[in-house]
Amino acid sequence: MSERPAGTRWKTLDSDLNRISIVEYASAQISRPLVAPGIGLAFIAVASLLAAVFFGHAPVNFVVVAAAGFGAYMALNIGANDVANNMGPAVGANALSMTAALVIAAVFESAGALLAGGDVVTTISQGIVAPSAMRSQDVFIWAMMAALISSALWVNLATWIGAPVSTTHAVVGGVVGAGAAAAGIAAVNWAMIGTIAASWVISPVLGGGIAAALLAFINARIIYREDKVAAARVWVPVLVGVMAGTFATYMLLKGLSRLVTTGPGLAAGVGIGFGIVIWLLTIPLIRRRSQGLENRESALRGLFGLPLVISAALLSFAHGANDVANAVGPLAAIVHAVGSGGHGEGMVLIPNWVMVIGAFGISFGLFLFGPRLINMVGNEITKLNPIRAFCVALSAAFTVIVASWLGLPVSSTHIAIGGVFGVGFFREWLMERRLRHMGHGPPKPITIAREERARRRLVRRSHFMTILAAWVITVPAAALISAAIFLGLRTVLG
């Protein structure tokens, strides 16, 4: 049997190596989408192991181990969904790259959760269901477990369809569904649910209105002026001072409430003083940075970049300080019930290890799954630049303060997204107004006019309807899922 020529053998070897390379490339492409879920599952396993270390001394405490896993799952979903509201506008305005946004958000979310996060939570999510209505410790634990699982599942689904939702509302819906299934509909505090439903309207309308008003003010005082650079030297320091004062008040009332106890009056006084100081310090800085700038809007946008980045970081810190407690509230309630032998009366302390799960879970979820929703909020709803994104960020902080003073129920998620929509719809209205004033010639047929108006839309209606629908059904959907899970747990576990 004759041997093949050497050249033929090398050609065959090269062909085989090419086939192997193609197979390896295909395997890498198939496995790449599985990397993030795999890391997420590893984090959930570590969280459960952490709970086993602290509560591994009795068989009943394996319930806590399971709850810790679901709590970690919930924290991952918060990082994937909720944090986009703070960082999306800055990324969409190109003030931050995606990588920088992820790093800043992870650091400040974790710092807010660990340094200033609420260390207590009212049992059963702030009085939504009366603890006395729970017949036993087991019923209470199953109800909280169902609330935790259902809220995590719903936020995961919302993230998958590209809808930023309120994770607090998801937790509330989970508690309502499990509480109603466990103790009856009469045990639910429907007045509290009514205030939460009101926030679906109040939050986005306030956030959008204030963001649009801020953009109108900047247009009138800076953008539409003959000498834009001179106007910017006057008003940009004022706006930065207002931002500094607003965020100082916001942080004292919401972000640092665990470290510093202040009333609204004192917080406002400190905020005003801090804002004046920053205004005075900013005047020479803006004067130097504006030297040599062209007299056009695009040249002025860079003056808003740094304030926008700082505001996004502070919003992330406040979010970590406030929302992590809501996220791990059901887990903390289960730990408290198992440790005390009761079923949820009074205030529940959140152990440090539970806060660690919440803080690191948010960061992992942000890095693994957050970029998609950050990109959607920043780029796909409406076109943002540093000026418009600055209006959204300042509106978010200002709206929370105003709503707190007025006693109105608001959602930080709805406020931020409402601000983005408010800026977009204001620009649409402004463009329509200009075109009406500039219109010449005979009126066009209605169908042609409608087609032109649709082409000129600056806000994507598909995202608007998807997000609005997700907001409306978050509480009832989480409630139904939670009730089904509770009934399943009760049937299986007796």
TrEMBL record:
Gene Ontology molecular function: phosphate transmembrane transporter activity
Q: State its location(s).
A: Membrane
Recorded hits in InterPro entries, A to Z, give: Phos_transporter
Give me the segments passing through the membrane.
34-54, 60-78, 90-108, 139-163, 170-191, 197-218, 230-253, 265-286, 298-318, 353-374, 386-406, 412-430, 464-489
Could you give one GO CC term from the UniProt record?
membrane
BP GO terms, sorted? phosphate ion transmembrane transport
Q: How is the protein disposed in the membrane?
A: Multi-pass membrane protein
Instruction: Supply the alphabetized keyword list.
Output: Membrane, Phosphate transport, Transmembrane, Transmembrane helix, Transport
Q: Name one Pfam family in it.
A: PHO4
Q: Which family does it belong to?
A: Belongs to the inorganic phosphate transporter (PiT) (TC 2.A.20) family.
Designated name of the protein: Phosphate transporter
The species this protein belongs to is Pontibaca methylaminivorans
